Structures are given as structure tokens and as C-alpha cells.
Amino acid sequence: MDTLFAWLFIINYFGDDDTKYEALYTMKITDVVRGDEAFTVLQAENEFIEPAPEGME
Predict the structure, then answer these.
(1) Do 29 and 5 form a contact (C-beta atoms < 8 A)?
(2) Nearest to 10 by CA among 27, 29, 23
(3) pTM higher than 0.85, yes or no?
(4) In this structure, what are the phi and psi dihedrals at residue 19, rounded to the nearest 5 degrees?
(5) Mapped to the 3 state alphabet, what secondary structure does the chain carry?
(6) Spatial separation of the C-alpha atoms in residues 42 and 51, rounded to whole Å
(7) Is residue 25 part of a domain?
(8) In this structure, is residue 24 part of a structural domain?
(9) In this structure, is residue 55 part of a structural domain?
(10) Among 1, 10, 31, 40, whose Cα sits 20 to 30 Å from the Cα of 54?
(11) Considering the domain boundaries, does residue 30 fall inside one?
(12) 16 alpha-carbon distance from chain centroid
């Protein structure tokens, strides 16, 4: 699968005992879904989602 975009994140967070942790995350976008197809996917996950205003996605 081709990668359209890729990001690298370094995130600091604290555990329950205030210990500081550092995590490295990568994220890749391999597909883009737009318009009615995207709305169908979103609506399947959240029945309360409203359609975008006219002229918007």
C-alpha cells in the first residue's frame, strides 16, 4: 500500500505515579475517502452525525 502522508510524533506523558514516559508514534495515511462515501462510513459509526452543510464535505 502506498503512503500518501507520514508523521512522526514524540509524546511525553505521565503515569499514575507521576513517572514521565516518552513514546514515539508514527502515523501513515494510505487512503483518502471523501464525500458521500466518507459520510456513509462515519454514519455507520455514529448514527447521530449530521451531514455537512451544502458545498462542504
Answers:
(1) yes
(2) 23
(3) no
(4) -75, 135
(5) CCCCEEEEEEEEEECCCCCEEEEEEEEEECCCCCHHHHHHHHHHHCCCCCCCCCCCC
(6) 10
(7) yes
(8) yes
(9) no
(10) 31
(11) yes
(12) 26
Please report, as a single letter, which amino acid is at residue 18: D
pLDDT in tens, 19-48: 999 999 899 999 899 999 999 999 999 999
Distance CA 25, CA 33 (A): 23
Range(s) of the domain holding residue 18: 5-45
- Decide if pLDDT at 5 tops 90: no
What residue type is assigned to position 14 of the chain? F
> Is-contact 22 10, C-beta < 8 A?
yes
Say if CB 10 and CB 38 are below 8 A apart.
Answer: no
Number of domains within the chain: 1
CA distance 15 to 29: 29
